[in-house]
Write a structure and sequence with these properties.
alpha/beta, 7-stranded mixed β-sheet, 12 helices, 15 strands
Length: 320
């Protein structure tokens, strides 16, 4: 099968052996895969897959089940989208059957391909780890990203006013159109967030440069979940503020969680979030799709930081 791998800062299509479909697994003929910042890092050699995971790029995909292992609840022909530790950017992928969800009613395979990673990330960090309650105020850094786009919609759906930091006025308008109350442009008025706080929960993929500001912006008993280091890994913190405000600081990753953890997360996502797509309360934010031959262009588009929402890579012409 053809599969996409990162080689010295570029991407290459390579021939790979087909993986056996074992007990509790399904084989999925991939129609499209979502592109995430983790794929950029892996291509650059900065984010290797967890031990035992495929080194093929792609943390999410959608397609049609072509084979089922014993004990799987899926049937050949089912349309599914999958959360992966790697392997989604290939003609087919074998995945733990518990890590697949049905395509939400009314969505195409391409639209569904950009859902699992970002909605699982947003749900895990806001609702499970931060234990966000209705009415609590939320700050989402990088609000126009894929995770940010999902988080804004979840906040709106579950009754949490949210604000964002973004890179441009256009991206701020985009976030407001999804349901954000407002926000700031990071290179112009980041400090104006002080006038919008305090916040009960902050979701931050930036890291070091925002650490001191995050601590100031949080309310007493606030929860700060850090999910990335886009801005750097080092920071200064006034630990007296951390103690005095009883702040809970959580570092969180999803890719290297074990299979059972991901299975429970996907089950919760399927029960609590997936029905909202059929109701029209959540929508996939797919800005652009690229053909298999345009993989390098797709990665360049994501790296430009001008994408609002998500990018999909088409592995084949999706079935009707």
């Amino acid at each position: 099968m053809k599969a996409l791998q990162g080689v010295e800062g570029r991407v290459e299509w390579d021939e790979r052996a087909v993986t056996a479909c074992d007990v509790g697994q399904i084989r999925v003929r991939v129609a499209a895969a979502g592109l995430n910042r983790a794929d950029l890092l892996q291509r650059a050699g900065q984010y290797p897959p967890p031990p035992g995971a495929s080194d093929i790029l792609g943390l999410e995909c959608a397609g049609v089940v072509s084979e089922t292992g014993a004990g799987s609840q899926w049937k050949v022909g089912d349309r599914v989208c999958c959360l992966l530790a790697g392997g989604g950017m290939a003609e087919e992928v074998v995945v733990d059957a518990r890590h697949a969800l049905p395509i939400p009613k009314g969505l195409s395979l391409v639209e569904a391909a950009v859902l699992p990673e970002v909605y699982a990330t947003a749900w895990l960090n806001l609702f499970q780890l931060a234990r966000m309650q209705p009415g609590e105020k939320v700050l989402l850094h990088a609000g126009a990203s894929g995770v940010g786009s999902a988080a804004i919609q979840l906040c709106k759906a579950f009754g949490n006013p949210c604000w964002v930091s973004v890179g441009s006025a256009e991206r701020l308008d985009y976030c407001v159109s999804l349901g954000a109350q407002g926000g700031v442009i990071r290179d112009q008025n980041l400090q104006d967030l002080r006038e919008l706080g305090p916040f009960d929960v902050i979701l931050d993929p930036v890291g070091g440069p925002y650490a001191e500001l995050n601590l100031d912006l949080l309310a007493r008993d606030g929860r700060w979940v850090n999910i990335g280091l886009m801005g750097g890994r080092e920071a200064r913190l006034d630990m007296a503020k951390l103690l005095g405000k009883r702040i809970q600081l959580t570092g969180s990753t999803l890719r290297n969680r074990d299979d059972s953890f991901k299975a429970e997360l996907l089950a919760d996502l399927g029960a609590q979030v997936w029905p909202l797509f059929a109701e029209g309360r959540l929508k996939p934010q797919l800005e652009r799709s690229f053909a298999m031959a345009e993989a390098e262009e797709a990665f360049a588009a994501l790296a430009s930081n001008r994408i609002s929402g998500k990018i999909a890579l088409l592995l084949e012409e999706p079935p009707a």
